[in-house]
Design brief:
It comes from Phycomyces blakesleeanus. This is Major facilitator superfamily domain-containing protein. Keywords: Membrane, Transmembrane, Transmembrane helix, Transport. This protein is 72% helix and 1% strand. The chain is built from 23 helices and 2 strands. Strand 1 and strand 2 form a beta hairpin. It has a two-stranded antiparallel sheet. With 588 residues, it is mainly α. Helix 3 packs antiparallel against helix 13 and helix 8 crosses helix 22.
Length: 588
């Protein structure tokens, strides 16, 4: 197909768990190819018969030929739709991370305080307010996407990103900066809704690859954001030959990187406006019903007009009787036509539209037990992962007498660059191949085991460094041996990060019924935003407590790593309460 993959039409027909009741009313209504206007959700490719996605998956996965299992052929991804979603996924982390390199200097320019600790606190407010605002609205955006479609929510997020980025670049005081970041978080529900859209245009044969692209684009945005922010801030000083006479950039030295990131979001908005198709089955069903109603009205109007034109009798009574008879016929025709349409599309269509509205009175009522367990697992993972990321530079760069490794900033930056490239390779190339042999639930458990292993061993790097310094005399050899040890641990950790991040996204989407997919992903995004708002502060506080004078083992630098290692272990145990049938593909 041109616009969408076969898996997308599968989702429209069979994403509803109430398959036998034909809740979406799509058995006979959806009969045309989805290749019309990008704004028109009234056309979907015909299918010879209806079969649920679960049934199709089990047929393929359980098929044997002469005693050998037959590997299902992966469904091609809808390239245009995935390209547009990729732009959306790239632009959000780009906008949210571009301020990191210059936020310290921006706050200093506000002249709030000369105390470095206070500047750090103000920077924390600006960083956290985005996630707090997103936490307060993510569920609502998920509900809106279930009621009115994914497309309008994603487009709103993109244009909101663009506007808020420009607003932040124009900040001249703390409250304007906080307001701009809060606005960005309020209008930005894209991450959860994008997950819902990816789930709806994929099936079990290509979902792992699609979510790998999701993680890949997100990772590229996380890398590109800080790079652009550091390179383009203060352009009058950095590029005097180009911007030396620009009075506007002298007045607003941080506008240029924000403007560049806003262009990315705006381009995504323009492409999405013209080419992004709706994927919400309920919204598509509503559009089909509305289109049929319009066609019936036009047909009825034409029939009535034809009857009046051809009625030439001179007998007023006969004309009136004839008109009355024709009108009655038209009404009868319409009644039977609507009855047939209702029968063909399923009498449950209206019911399907009303049930989500009822559930939306309380968003949490849309979250099943399985979804709640997975959201808890995802939140736990997000928490200990962010705490690790927060204390990693503190541990590396702190002097050895303070419990750190005494590394240098260039050395640490070099390590992060290598790990960033490694993460992209794992996300895009390794994960899809692993998913052919292992289910998403198995890969999640493997990742959590890796986290426990790394977290409990990581504080022992201090001991390893002492041993290397005593046992090896050559300085270059010392550096390479120690570098090999910590890079090995970080490699395992980043491998686990990729596996857990992608697998948990898939599992959360798999656990949600079609009519509540957006709400479930919204709840998940809301929980993750809350974690992102507080995890860095908690991690930094725990690290400060662990370095207090006189704190002995295990309350020294080991403490924070042991805490997150214990959380990862509890997360591992919790995965055994998750039903295996939610997992996608692989050997369960």
């Amino acid at each position: 197909m041109d616009g969408l993959s076969k898996s997308y039409t599968d989702s429209i027909y069979s994403n509803d768990p109430r398959e036998d009741t034909n809740a979406l009313g799509l058995t006979h209504s959806i009969n045309s190819n989805y290749s019309g206007s990008p704004h028109d959700s009234s056309a979907v490719e015909p299918r010879p018969r209806k079969m649920s996605k679960a049934s199709l998956t089990s047929v393929f996965e359980d098929t044997e030929y002469n005693g050998l299992s037959v590997e299902p052929t992966p469904t091609p991804l809808p390239r245009l739709q995935m390209f547009i979603i990729s732009i959306i996924l790239f632009s959000e982390p780009l906008t949210s991370t571009i301020l990191f390199p210059f936020i310290y200097f921006m706050i200093k320019d506000f002249h709030l305080s000369d105390d470095e600790k206070e500047i750090g606190a103000y920077a924390g407010w600006i960083t956290s307010v985005f996630f707090l605002a997103q936490f307060s609205t993510a569920i609502q955006w998920g509900k809106i996407s279930d009621n009115h479609g994914r497309r309008p929510v994603l487009l709103t997020g993109l244009i909101g990103n663009s506007i808020s980025a420009c607003m932040f670049g124009l900040s001249k005081n703390l409250w304007w900066a906080i307001g701009a970041r809060a606005f960005c978080g309020i209008v930005n529900g894209n991450s959860g809704v994008a997950r819902s859209m990816v789930s709806e245009i994929t099936d079990s044969t290509n979902r792992a690859k699609a979510f790998s692209i999701f993680g890949f684009c997100w990772g590229i945005g996380m890398i590109a954001g800080p790079a652009l922010g550091g390179y383009l801030s203060r352009p009058v000083e950095g590029f005097p030959e180009y911007f030396g006479d620009n009075e506007f950039l002298k007045e607003y030295p941080y506008f240029l990187p924000c403007f560049v990131s806003s262009i990315g979001s705006f381009i995504g908005f323009l492409i999405g406006y013209f080419y992004l198709n709706e994927t919400n089955p309920l919204t598509i069903a509503k559009n089909i019903e509305n289109e049929k109603a319009k066609q019936d009205e036009i047909r009825e109007s034409n029939d009535t007009s034809s009857i009046r034109t051809n009625s030439n009798t001179d007998n007023d009574t006969e004309r009136l009787l004839s008109a009355d008879h024709q009108t009655s016929s038209a009404q009868t025709y319409k009644t039977f036509s609507n009855a047939n349409d209702l029968d063909a599309t399923g009498s449950q269509s209206t019911k399907a539209e009303e049930e989500p509205k009822k559930g939306y009175l309380n968003a949490l009522s849309s979250v099943s037990r399985d979804s709640a367990l997975l959201i808890l697992a995802y939140s736990l993972f997000g928490f200990h992962s962010m705490v690790f990321d927060e204390i990693l530079p503190l541990y590396f760069l702190a002097p050895t007498y303070a419990g750190g490794l005494g590394s240098t900033s260039p050395e640490f930056a070099k390590a992060l660059s290598i790990l960033g490239i490694q993460q992209l390779i794992i996300q895009f190339f390794v994960y899809p191949r692993l998913s052919r042999s292992f289910s998403t639930l198995v890969m999640t458990r493997f990742a959590l085991v890796a986290f426990v292993f790394v977290y409990f061993l990581f504080p022992e790097l201090s001991t390893v460094k002492e041993w290397v310094n005593m046992a090896i005399e050559d300085e270059n050899t010392k550096d390479w041996v120690f570098r090999g040890v910590y890079m090995s641990l970080l490699f395992v950790r980043y491998l686990g990060n990729c596996l857990a991040f992608t697998s948990l996204m898939i599992l959360v989407s798999n656990s949600a019924p079609a009519e509540a997919l957006g709400t479930v992903n919204g709840v998940c995004q809301s929980c993750l935003s809350l974690v992102r708002a507080f995890a860095p502060t908690i991690g930094g506080t725990l690290w400060s407590i662990s370095l207090r004078t006189g704190s002995g083992y295990p309350f020294d630098h080991h403490m924070v790593y042991y805490i997150i290692g214990t959380l990862a272990f509890f997360g591992l145990l919790q995965t055994y309460s998750i039903p295996a049938d939610i997992a996608s593909r692989g050997r369960r």
